[in-house]
Amino acid sequence: MRRIPGGWSRFSPRRGAGPALALWLALCAAACNAGQVELGDGDDGGADGLADADGLADDDGLADDDGLADDDESADAGGDDGAGDDVTCLGHCASGAQDCGETGLDCGGADCAACPDPCVGHCASGAQDCGETGLDCGGADCAACPDPCAGHCASGAQDCGETGPDCGGADCVACPDPCADHCASGAQDCGETGPDCGGADCAACPDPCANHCASGAQDCGETGFDCGGECSPCGQGGCTFPQGVPEGAFTGGVGNDAGIAAAVNAVMQTLSGCDIGSDCTLDLGAFPGPDDWFGAVNQALRDQGYCAGRHEEGYTDEIAVSSTGCTGRWYGYHIYNYGGGKVVWNPGAQRGWWSIDPSYCP
Q: 144: which of 25, 159, 228, 318 is 20 to 30 A away, CA to CA?
C-alpha cells in the first residue's frame, strides 16, 4: 500500500513479487473484512479508528483530527448529533435547588411543574399575609376583620376616642363631671382654696386668723402667744417665781386651772413642733438639756403675761405658773421626762397648786 491524498489506497504488486507477497495481501484483506483494520479508502465515517480526511467524526467514540466529538453523545461544535445540549440542567426539576430558570424550588420555568400558589388557604394560615388587613381577615379574599371598637363603651378601659373609661367621645355617654358636688368631697379640689371651701363654687373658707388672739398659739403676726401684732401688746416679761422662798412659806393644795394648763400645752406644742399628747422627743439641737426646755417654756408664758418660773432655778424639775401675779395661786407642771428627753403634756404634767407668803414677792 501507499499513501495518496485522501487516504490509503490498495495497489497491485509488481510483477514477479512472488508468492510471499500474494499471501500477505490475502491475509490483509481478511483482516480488513473482519473489522480489525480498514485501509484508507477516503470515505466519510469509516470505522477504522483512524482519522479520515473528511473532517467528521467516526463512530468509534474517539476524537478525530477535526477536534469535534463523535456520535458518543458528547457535545461538539460541528453541528452533529447532541451538539448544544446543557448537561448541568439535566434532571434539575428534582435537584433540591432553584436553578435553570425555575421560579421556585424544583418548580416553575419552562421544564418543571407549576409552583404551588403561596396564598392558597391563606385565610386560615394563622399569619397576616397575602394582603390581609388583620390576622386571617380582611383584604381581597378573607372575611372582614372584626371592628376593634365594637362594644368599646363597655370594655372597662378608656379607648376608641373616649374621654374617660367607657364614657365620652363620639359613641359613649358623657363622662360625669369630676367637680360635681366637689364642695362636699372632703378634699381640696376643683379650684378650692381650702377643703370644700373657697374658689368659684364653694362658700368662702373661714378666716384662719379669726379669734387668733385667743388661740393659745403664736400665729397670724403675733409677737408672742396671743399677744402682739393685731392682739394686745405682750407683757414686758410677766413675773418670775421668787427665789429663796423657804419651805415654811409655801401653802399648797390639789387642783388645777384649765386655762393655764391649756396655755402650757400650747406653748410646748409650738416650741417642740409636736402634736399635743403625742410621744415627742425634744430636738437636742434646740434644747440640749432640761434647763433649756424649762427656760424656753417659762419665757413664752411670761410673754403672754403669765408669771412663770421654777421654785429653784437650775434645780427643781417642774415649773410654776400663775395668772394672778406673784401673790396669787401658782400651778405646778412637770413638763420634762428626764428618762428620755421627752415632753410631758397636761393633764399628766399637773402637780397641784401653791401660794407663797406675800412678803417674798417683789
A: 159
